[in-house]
Amino acid sequence: MHGLINQAIERFARDTYGPVFWDRLCRRQNLPVRAFEAMQTYDPVVTEEILDGLAFALGKGRDEVLEDIGTFLVSSPSTAALRRLLRFGGTSFIDFLYSLDDLPARVRLAVPELTLPQMELREHGRRSFSFVVKSDDTRKPWFGHVMVGLLRAMADDYGALVVLEHMGASPGREIIAIMLLEAAYTEGRAFDLGARAP
């Protein structure tokens, strides 16, 4: 597993619940390291251990923890670079949705070693979509749940009102149902496409 993924989960745990919580989780799960390096790779079993440990420590389902991580990735100031990368997908939430097919390629431009699952947006009506996450990974599917949290946070970021539901997983894919109730429900968070001078 790419170190950036483990580092993002570590940052979520540390920033949200504190360094003492993270330290205890590492000891309880007998993790080989307590601070993950972004450019290293780790045994995928380590990632599974972290996620299982978080679910146990928080008394939540693993899927719920994954959605919380997805929301954190967009809403936390410590991950502002990812939010900026995502906001370059368009000026509205619908533009953003259509840009998601290209997200794995955009991520590879920034981090060539990081491979995300294939993604496909399907339109079923003017406000009804499904988002398909495809993967060759045979382990427990989890990226789709991260995407639910990320999509929810991005909808808030754009000021859109949406209903999201993870529709389950089958071998090689997860499906998320997206219903756009209102494209401009609130003002949304400020974002400037142009670079600001120091």
Automatic annotation (TrEMBL):
<dbReference type="Pfam" id="PF07700">
    <property type="entry name" value="HNOB"/>
</dbReference>
<dbReference type="InterPro" id="IPR038158">
    <property type="entry name" value="H-NOX_domain_sf"/>
</dbReference>
<protein>
    <submittedName>
        <fullName>Heme NO-binding protein</fullName>
    </submittedName>
</protein>
<dbReference type="InterPro" id="IPR024096">
    <property type="entry name" value="NO_sig/Golgi_transp_ligand-bd"/>
</dbReference>
<dbReference type="GO" id="GO:0020037">
    <property type="term" value="F:heme binding"/>
</dbReference>
<dbReference type="InterPro" id="IPR011644">
    <property type="entry name" value="Heme_NO-bd"/>
</dbReference>
<feature type="domain" description="Heme NO-binding">
    <location>
        <begin position="2"/>
        <end position="165"/>
    </location>
</feature>
